[in-house]
Design goal:
62% of the residues lie in helices and 7% in strands. The strands form three sheets. Strands 6, 7, 8, 9 and 10 form a five-stranded antiparallel beta sheet that branches. The protein folds into four domains: 1-36 and 195-341, Multidrug efflux transporter AcrB transmembrane fold (Up-down Bundle); 71-168, Alpha-Beta Plaits, CATH 3.30.70; 359-407 and 530-725, Multidrug efflux transporter AcrB transmembrane domain (Multidrug efflux transporter AcrB transmembrane fold), CATH 1.20.1640; 428-513, Multidrug efflux transporter AcrB pore domain like (Alpha-Beta Plaits, 2-Layer Sandwich), CATH 3.30.70. With 746 residues, the protein is α+β, with helices and mostly antiparallel strands. Keywords: Cell membrane, Membrane, Transmembrane, Transmembrane helix. It is a multi-pass membrane protein.
């Protein structure tokens, strides 16, 4: 593979105008497609095979008219202190507000609180439900303005008015201040790591090209494939992070090869053939882990995995083709000024120069760990273990309006409804009774109503509604506790257990659904899938690293380190989002369960990123070891050549992920905190401390491989040994032909 990538790098360098034109054309097409495509819809999560999903499917079949409605809004009114909403003036204000909405072009209906009984027992709070003929994304600005004006008019009379419901749900758009801060930090780190504005700008430029194409494609396919804004933001987050990192790795190798005196074209080929091999492997691991999210069985998680995998694949292609093409445009300007000055004066050598100066920070740190491997291993391992302890209390759930900021009208509407009608009002349970197999529809329905009403924890049960064919009944049960409460989860299981007795007696099918029940089912499915998915990922990591490094113990060490970093990341999520530690610093106003999709999603992403750092750091170690270096010297060599680059790459990735913490979406916030923490732990504790300490203790045993595996396993040659054997060391700056190459101006 190294030889093939070497040829690709040289070809891209020579055909730089063609390569640049192709990527520019792809960028223009992707942006145009995104601009012309219709907006996607924010779909509810679904989980095929669960009881709640079966009930939803049955409702779609038996009650098509009730499931074809569009967006919904709730206008919540609260009377001034000491007054009631039933007072004459307040009632008139409420009816005027509701009446103004009932005349809207996209409004299907607007209920009167006084006729529908939507008034609290103490008479202080009331609400009107407004249903629309269009989905939230298709609501016109006029319809949204009418809703806002109705609320504003009622407020002017002294009422407190808030708006909830799906009509206000909007897609989270990237491009805020915090994301820009993350990119700015990445730019500063690139300049410091590469010592050149041109080299830093190239890494950012190529990453932006890949991200823009990926984001454009996801946006263009949002409507036909049902991709949500979360898919697009994940593609943006991952594509930007790995795109910068991959360009940094190849650029660093190009500068190294150029500093040895090789011509720019030759340096580009060798950079892609060596560092590019590691990029391909690293990208492949991220791609496989993200695509593997499809095995969990949640469509939204599958789409997120595929969107992120596509962005990573584009980042790899950009790194292998566009990056060396840009080398052809900038040439020696990619190098630090001191190196270019030495090359102009002829002070270059086609052979590596022994390092006689003071060793860098990476080499000094490696020697420190080699001298004290046991203390370093104990401190790092116990420290990560302590951070991971909160993960034992991990609770999974899905965020609703209760997790939004109190500055939003949706959150205030949620709080008003909870105050006036009980905490369970915002998360009612829907009980669906399929009476097709029952002899007496009315008797069966009445029995279900009585059974549900007798369950402890049920605040109220509504009157059943029959389908047109009188073969299905639907009733609403309101819990006494909030939707994300553990008591509500137990209540759902209790109702289902009680319903099974009714099924046995009547032959009817009784299903419990609703958004609360669906969230509970999805969270349970996530918990059940977590260990199997983690087992598959760990097994894949051990297998891939065994092939790459031709070692048994190195992959085991890498897998155990990955477990530590993921466990510590979960501990941070629990501490921040469940316990509220430092929640104020990132704008978390309401604690609760960790979003159920996050653990598996973080495992999939961090697995690939952890393998990135493992590969880039240990490749140089193995390269030195197979060429005769002692195990300790091989570790120092790896840190000397790759430690700084890996540290810079990790800081860049942490900055990009942390830049998304400031977004208002709880999903994106959780993802940003979890990924930033996981990368920090994995790069700086596991790979920089635990890995060299373990290698120091193992010595030569670290690179041992049984003979039978040595014969069976393929040799992927990620260190580029075949490249050194098959491609002669040629085309240095001293060659006359090289001096005529268009390598850019100084």
């Amino acid at each position: 593979m190294a030889v093939l990538l070497y040829r690709i790098g040289r070809w891209a360098f020579r055909r730089r105008r063609l390569v640049g034109g192709v990527w520019l054309g792809a960028l223009v097409l992707a942006v145009a497609a995104a601009a012309l495509a219709p907006a996607g819809e924010e779909e509810d999560l679904s989980m095929p095979g669960t009881e709640s999903q079966k009930a939803f499917d049955l409702l779609d079949e038996r009650f098509p008219q009730s499931n074809s409605q569009g967006a919904e809004a709730r206008l919540v009114f609260r009377a001034p202190d000491g007054e009631r909403v039933t007072a004459r003036d307040n009632r008139a204000a409420v009816e005027d507000a509701v009446g103004s909405l009932d005349r809207g072009a996209q409004v299907a209906s607007a209920t009167d609180p006084y006729e529908s009984g939507a008034v609290s027992e103490d008479g202080t709070i009331a609400y009107s439900t407004i249903t629309y003929t269009a989905d939230a994304v298709d609501l016109t600005e006029a319809s949204k303005d009418d809703l806002a004006n109705a609320a504003r008019g009622a407020r002017e009379t002294g009422l407190t008015v808030e708006i909830g419901g799906s009509a206000l749900d909007a897609e989270e758009e990237p491009g805020g201040t915090t994301e820009l801060v993350g990119v700015a930090v990445a730019a500063v780190v690139l300049v410091l790591a590469l010592g050149s504005l041109v080299a830093a700008g190239l890494s950012l430029l190529t990453a932006f090209v890949g991200v823009a194409i990926a984001f454009g494609l996801v946006s263009a396919l949002a409507a036909p494939l049902g991709l949500t804004s979360t898919v697009a933001i994940l593609a943006l987050m991952l594509g930007l992070a790995v795109g910068i990192d991959y360009a940094l790795f190849i650029t660093s190798r190009f500068r190294h090869e150029s500093a040895l005196g090789r011509a720019p074209e030759e340096a580009a080929g060798r950079a892609v053939g060596t560092a590019g091999s590691a990029v391909v492997f690293a990208g492949a691991t991220v791609f496989i882990a993200l695509v593997g999210l499809g095995v969990v069985g949640i469509p939204e998680l599958t789409k997120m995995g595929l969107g992120g995998a596509g962005a990573v694949a584009l980042a790899v292609l950009v790194a292998l083709t566009l990056v060396p093409a840009l080398f052809g445009f900038f040439g020696r300007r990619m190098l630090p000024r001191a190196v270019r000055k030495a090359m102009r004066s002829g002070d270059v050598s086609p052979r590596p120069v022994p390092d006689t100066g003071r060793p860098g920070l990476g080499a000094r740190w490696a020697r420190f760990v080699l001298r004290r491997p046991v203390p370093v291993l104990m401190i790092a391992g116990l420290g990560l273990g302590a951070v991971a302890l909160p993960a034992l209390s991990l609770e999974l759930g899905l965020p609703g309006d209760e997790s939004k900021s109190v500055e939003t009208t949706q959150r205030r509407a949620y709080d008003l409804l909870s105050e006036g009608f009980g905490p369970g009002f915002n998360g009612p349970l829907t009980v669906v009774v399929d009476t097709a197999g029952s002899g007496d529809v009315r008797a069966t329905t009445d029995l279900v109503v009585k059974t549900v009403r007798d369950v402890d924890g049920v605040a109220s049960v509504g009157d059943p509604v029959l389908s047109r064919g009188a073969d299905t009944a639907v009733l609403t049960a309101v819990p006494e506790t909030a939707p994300n409460s553990g008591t509500t989860k137990d209540l759902v299981h209790t109702i289902r257990s009680a319903a099974s007795d009714v099924e046995a007696d009547t032959g009817a099918d009784v299903l419990v659904t609703g958004s609360t029940a669906m969230n509970i089912d999805i969270s349970q499915a996530m918990s059940d899938a977590l260990l199997p998915y983690l087992t598959v990922v760990i097994g894949l990591a051990v297998l891939l690293l065994t092939v790459v490094f031709r070692s048994v113990l190195v992959p085991v060490k890498a897998a155990l380190g990955f477990l530590l970093s993921v466990g510590a990341a979960f501990g941070v999520l629990v501490a921040v989002f469940q316990w509220g530690w430092a929640a104020d610093l990132i704008g978390i106003e309401q604690t609760g369960p960790v979003m159920s999709l996050m653990p598996i999603l973080i495992i999939g992403i961090v697995f690939g990123l952890a393998m990135d750092y493992e590969v880039f750091l240990l490749t140089r170690m193995r390269e030195a070891y197979v060429h005769g270096a002692a195990p300790g010297d091989a570790v120092v060599n790896g840190f000397r050549h790759s430690g700084r680059v890996v540290a810079a790459a990790a800081i860049i990735m942490i900055s990009v992920f942390a830049g998304f913490i400031g977004m208002s979406s709880p999903t994106i916030q959780t993802m940003g905190v979890g990924l930033a923490a996981a990368v920090a732990f994995d790069a700086f504790v596991v790979r920089m401390a635990i890995a060299p300490a373990v290698l120091a203790l193992l010595g030569r045993r670290a690179w041992w491989l049984p003979r039978i595996l040595d014969r069976v396993l393929p040799n992927v040659d990620i260190e580029g040994e075949a490249l050194s054997r098959q491609v002669p060391d040629r085309a240095t700056e001293s060659d006359p032909a090289v001096r005529r190459l268009p390598v850019g101006r100084d």
